[in-house]
Structures are given as C-alpha cells and as structure tokens.
Design a protein that fits this description.
Radius of gyration of chain A: 19 Å
Strand content of chain B: 15-25%
Strand order of the largest sheet of chain A: 3-4-2-1-5-6-7
Oligomer: heterodimer
Helix content of chain A: 25-40%
Largest interface: A-B, 74 and 60 residues
Radius of gyration of chain B: 25 Å
Number of strands of chain A: 14
Shape of chain B: elongated
Order of helices and strands of chain A: EHEEEHEHEHEEEHEHEHEHEHEHH
Largest sheet of chain B: 6 strands, antiparallel
Strand content of chain A: 15-25%
Order of helices and strands of chain B: HEEEHEEEEHHEEEHEEHEHEHEHEH
Number of helices of chain A: 11
Amino acid sequence: MGILLDKATDVVVQGATGKEGKRVVAAMRAYGTRVSCGVTPGKGGTVSDDLPVFSDVRAACAAFPALNASVIVVPPFAAKEAILEAIEAGIPLISVMTERMPMRDAAYCFATAKEHGIRIIGPASLGIIVPGVGRLGVIGGPLVDEIFTPGSVGVISRSGGMTNELSWSVRQAGLGQSAAVHVGGDSLLGTSYADALRLFEADPETEAVVVYGEQGGACEFEIASLVRKGQFTKPIAVHVGGDFAKALPEGAVVGHAGAIVRRGQSAADKAKVLSESGVLVAERFDDLVQSVKPLISHAHHDTHLAHHQGR
Amino acid sequence: MNLYEHEGKDLLASFGIRVPKGTLVRRAEADAIVNDGPCVAKAQALASDRAKRGGIAVCASAAEARAAAARWLDGGMDCLDVDAVLIEEKIPAVRELYVACLQDTGARGPVLLAGTVGGSGIESSGQVLRFPLDAKVPAAFSASLHRGLEAVAPGFAAFCRSLVEAFQTSDARQIEINPVAVLTDGAFVALDAKIALDVDAAFRHPEWEAYGQRTESGKALTPRELAVRSIDAGARWYQGTAGKYREMDGDVAVLFSGGGASIVIMDELAHHGLAAANYTEYSGNPPREKVRDLARIVLSKPGLRGLLIAGGVANFTDIKETFAGIVDALDETQPPYPIVIRRAGPNEKEGMELMRACAERNGLRMALHGKETTMRDAVGQLEKMMQSYGHPA
C-alpha cells in the first residue's frame, strides 16, 4: 500500500527537457512509475526521449486528464511560477526537487497550495518512494533495487543521501520499507516530519518509523509534540545528526539550509525533548534501525518478502 | 547572510523606518569623532549580546566615544574583529518595545513577533505575541492583528507594516528590532537592527554585492574560506553546491557529499577521537570543475595527516563526475597521508576505478569502500591507518 503513491499515479515532470529533468524521467520510468509527459515553457509540441512535451501544465492536463502528480526540476528562479502553474492546473501532489529556492517564494506557494488542498513535498526534496509501487523523484538512484524492498518500516529524512543510507540500514537489518519520504533540508517544508508521520500513522502497512533528523531548526520538536498528543502511536526512533556543531558559533549553517546552529536547537537538546516524549533516540546513526527492530512483529514477514521479491 | 547593524539600519531607513542619526567610523576616521554631547558608540560585530560582551558604550562626550572606538578598532570586541563603529545620537525613549518578522518553520511562512517590552532576553521570555502573516500579502494585516498591535502602542501597526514591507521586499529570513524606542510624541525609532537575508534570493538582489564577504559570526574569513566562495558564483551557480568550507583545528581533511551524511560523519570522527581540518560538503550533482576547485582548497591546508572522502548512497550526484574533480586535485598534490573513501550511487564503478587508477599512478595509500562498509567503519579504518602513519616530518 504505502503512502501518497499507487499504481494509478500519473506524473508530469516540469523541467523535463533539462539535463537533470531527463535523468528524473528515466529514473521514475525505470522503477515502473508512469510518466505521461513533460512541461518546458516554449517546447510544447516536441518529444524528448519518447516523452511528449507541453509548454504549460494546463495543456499537459488537457492531453492527459489522469495526471495527478508533478515533479518539479527547474532552476530556483523559475520554481515559484512552475509550482503555481501545477497548483492552478489542479495537480494534487507536487514534489519539488529544486534546491536553493527563495523562502519568500516557497512560503507563497505553500499558502496557495493550502487554499487549493494540494500537497507539496519539498522544496529541495528528492521525493518519495513506495517500494514495489513507484517513486516520485529519484530516491534510490540507480541502486534503488539494492536498497528498497517492500516492508513495514516507514522512513523519513531531512537529507536525500541519508534517506538512502537509512533505508539501506533497514534492508541490512532484514526489513523492508513501507515508504521513504525525503522531506527536504530547508527551513520551510511543504510536508513536515509531522505531516509524513500522520500519513504513516494512517497506513496499515507501516508498523514503525525511523527518522533521520538534524541539529538546528524546529522540525524535530514537531515529532515530539505529535507523539505527546497521541497523534502518532506506532514505534518511532530518531537519530539527530550534528552533535559536533555544538562547538560552532550561533548562526553557522552545517549541511542543509535549515541546519542553523542555535541555542536550544542542538542535537542534544532535540534528543532530550524527543526522548522525554517517548520517542526512541539512537545516539549513533548505525543504531537507529536496531532500536525499533524488536518492536516490529512483522520483522520475519519482511525478511520473507525481501527474499522472495528479489528487489 | 547577516547584516551589520549599520547596514540593517540603512535598509530599514529606506523603508521609512526611523533610526537614530549616526556616523559610521572606520580605523582611519576614529580620531575625527566630534559629536557634541551624549552619544552611543556601538561596535559593528555580527554577534548577539553585544551589550553583555562589551560592544556598546553610552558616552557623555566625543572624547569618550573616541576612546571606545579606538579600543574596539585596535583590540576587537570579545575576540571578534571590529572594522567599524557606529556613533549615534542618544534617543530619549519613554518606553521600549520588541518586534521581529521571520520565516517560521511551524507556520511555513512569515510570522510577526511583538513584545510590549524590549531588551535582552525578551525573545525567549514568553512575553512575546506571535502573529502568523499571510505569505501572499504579509503586509496586509488582518483587523485582529491591527487591533493587537495598536493595543501595544498607538501607531505601532503602521510601524510594523513598514517592517514587514522591508522584510518581504528585501527577501529577509529575519528582521529583529530590539529595542524599538517610543518617544514622548509617540514616534518609533529602531535602536538596533538584526537582519538576516535569504542568500537563495541573491539572484534578484544585485544590490547585495555591496555587502561584501563575511562569516555568520563576524570572525574574519581565512584565505581558504574566502577562496572557496567563488566556486558557486558565476553562471553555473545553481548547478550543485561545492562552495562550503569551514576551517577547523584538526588534521583530517574531509570532502563530504550530502548535507546529512556530512554531519553524521563529522559526529563519527569525534566518536573515534579524530579531528577534522575542515568541514566541507558538496551536493546536488556539481560539475567536475567545481569539485576540483573545492578539493584543491581542502588539500592545500598545511599539517594534514589524513583524508576522508565520504558520503551516503547518492541519489543523483554522479560519482564518476565528482570523483574526476577530486582526482584532478589528488594528481596535483599526491598526498603522502592515508586516504579513505566511502561512497555509492550513480556511476560508482567508474568513479571508484578513477580513484584506484589515481592511487596507483601516484603511489597513494588509499582504501576504497562502497555502501557495504558503514560510514562508522570507514572512519574506524582511517583512524587505524593514521595511527600507523605517524606525524609529518
């Protein structure tokens, strides 16, 4: 089952004819996700790697009425316009890969999406994967079949690379993933940890969730408050990276744009709040999956699935 | 990018916000301070708690201001270099308020914070009102917000609207004015200005070039930290990021890829008792040239005893392309110290082969690992290799 995606997911890629756009289209198709068309302003009517290209999302939707997801791979200065176009065309799920999008533009798009009941993942997100079903974006890259296999563990990460690394730990522990979501590393997120956790809470396939978090910013505190309020009830383990940053001056950014060193937002501060709220906290990244494994009743089932699926 | 107080005040003034009359003095001009009467001298440093750290002096005369300025310009402020001092008129406030506008994670957009008192520590005191703004038109205050601000002080809503205009138009991440002085006639004056700009919006703000290079703490950049900043400039600025380099005190050079992996591996270095010579991370599939320029700078630091090239399982960063850039730099420097590599992702076979060939032709001590080796174990191996390497001659 998984979250957000299913076999009927039908994708338009905005920015499909660029170098990165072409790789994104190929990656999704290679994983069996339907990509019906691309959009690049001014290139309507052309065909790129067997993909019909339109000049705007509205025209794409007219030709492919089943389109229900967009992946955005445009430069940062064009991201706001591209997202608004997808919103206006009524695409209900928009995954924004664009990195370094201005915060003012992201905030504007989130507000508009909210008015229309549309979900945005990102920006600066590599997307979401539901193993065996499909992927929106490029999570897993070419090694997707080595890393991902259907199972019962939900994966959430602020880092694209660590989405894979964590999913790989899940796989090495003999488990599989119900879905993996890269929420993105910016300060403003269309889909927060808490939003992703609500989706995993409602998903019957998901038995437990593992989260890669970081020092700086406030997103990890949302996990604690969700768990305290009883809105997330499944086993959950978090690792908060960036303990070394406690030695750096306030305002320093380490890694992602949202990972800004601030008093009260260190890795230790977050670990403490999470732990006090009943969240399992792994002090070292390598221990993250092992800390929830004993709580997963289907662990054996996952191993079995992984063995037989061969992917 | 954080602005100095004087830059922030100039920005606020351009949006019609009143700031104290002042003069900015640099080293050569410090002797020329001629304020006739009481004034406030303020060291221009990018630090919070300047008052506690001895960076603000209320002066009775120009002589006192000259003395304070000379002290900071020659000796710095609490270990920070000071290049300029702001000498301002003393404002007779009947009351002080707090106001800030910032992009807020929980609200997913701008919020306005307002406090009925100003001063140090107010932002974390719980005495601050928090109002989410409409991200589409933040300066169009709702009726209830307008009433709330007018209840703080008559006319405060209009003042806050100017602040929000400045915030929005300038692509700020945060503007904080603490304190805002209320004068006897009810006018508002920004006594301080703490502004952080969203660097991702730099493409539409050519005027920001005038602000010059700086670190977040105001500590001067090292020559390498300065050199790395040109990497992500130019026409290909948005094609990946390879311009992050923070000099640190250790002897392990690092070339990490991925924001998340980089901090996990930094933590692992500490767990193994190793100390990084730098913090560096490239990501977003940067081209070979960018990675080469970055690697050259990382390897140029004296006193290195090990090199760790590591990242997670890449999604779309091309291992062959990025490793080709590192190989260019390794061919030039031929480091004698041990090198451990841990990486996986697109074109990893080709990338690893480039590294292997580079090690062979240059006689490098290099260990190569894919995703089967954890980041922790890769760091463990570097620790062992460095133990047998000994100290540089």
